[in-house]
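Notebook, p. 212. Picked up where the previous page left off. The plan for this session was modest: take the two constructs that came back from the sequencing core last week, fold each one, and keep the raw output in the notebook itself so nobody has to go hunting through shared drives later. Recording the first one now, exactly as returned: residue sequence, then the structure token string.
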Amino acid sequence: MTGRVPGDTLLAARRATALYSRELEHLSDEDLRGDSTAPGWSRSHVVAYVALEARALAIALDGLASITHPDYEPVGEWGAAVDFTATLGASALRNLHHHTVVHLNVACRDLPDAAWSVPIEVSGRRAAPSALMARRELQIVKGTLALRTGARVGIDSTGLPVVTPSAPLFDSADVTTKP
């Protein structure tokens, strides 16, 4: 690898994020408080977790780019933070999601080429940013399905996630773990 995140990896993560964002916007404020497919979590918990995980990744990437930020614990250790964040109002949760999407996109844009192959630790995982972005794509797909909106995710001819009414790669009934 040349050090730069593979274009397909970043594109896949962005497509998955666009799908997730659309599904989130289709949920009413009341529906956002409903059950997810993740045991013990509401849809608000899923939104909180996905947003906090994006923030942790963006902060780690900012650190590689020599932008100073406070240290953050891995999201996996943020049980109380996810629970608290899940209590925010629906518009605050949506705004948090949108803000973290922008922050992560800017962090990816500003990361020097050489830094894409430097291992960093995010949420208890040590890997190069390019591998973490591939994981992010899967996490977003799982988060989308955990929202229980009926979304079905398939893959296109290039292997990237797409919404499809048939031949799902994943289906909300198949997702019973937290993103």
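Okay, moving on. Second construct, recorded in the same format:
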Amino acid sequence: MAHPHGNDARHERPGAAADQPAPESATHGEQSAPSVSSPSHAIRLAAMTQALLAQVRDLELDDAARQRLGSVHNTTVEELRELLSEPLRSEVERLELSLPDEPTDAELRVAQAQLVGWLEGLFHGIRSTMVAHQLASQEELARMQRQGLPGGDDGKTRPGGQYL
């Protein structure tokens, strides 16, 4: 089984150009808002974790498979922590997602399911925030349109619309 994130996901991140870093105010402010520094990397981690959980759900794992899955799980949790702002990192810490050196099948499956569930909740939160921002922007635009555009109106109608 290859490394779950390419050759070394911490140094070479495919698709990193699509990643959007956290705004300066979120990383350097006194009270930073929950954020993810690399959403596309977090999505890749979530997809990999969900796929692993689905593949091992009905399998009986031998010692080597348990060790490998435990290692991948712990690596994924560590990489996820690196992507999260302090409030989200603290939340992950409270979940106690790390596994013992020799986890049982049940411990592995519970930890994987817990991680997938937390990531799904994170993405629902991100989507909800995006929708709220979009609605606020639409309301602001509607308010501006109701008030009319300031200046430049001399009462004459120009052909071609207001911008030409």
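Notes on construct two before I forget. The helical segments are 24-28, 39-56, 63-83, 86-95, 105-147.
Flagging for discussion at group meeting.
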